Amino acid sequence: MNRSELFNRIQNEICYNTINSLSDYQIIQEYKYHKNIYNKLKVINNVLNTYGINDKNIMNDFAYALTPINVLNQLKKDKFNKIVLENINKLELDIKPIIKINKKYDWCLSNKKNKKTLYGINIIDINKCKKMSEAINNINSYNDNFNNHTNIIYVICNNIYINNLSNRTIEFLQKGFMNNKVCYIKGLIHSINRYIK
Question: Which residue range forms the structural domain that includes residue 146?
Answer without folding.
Answer: 3-16+76-196
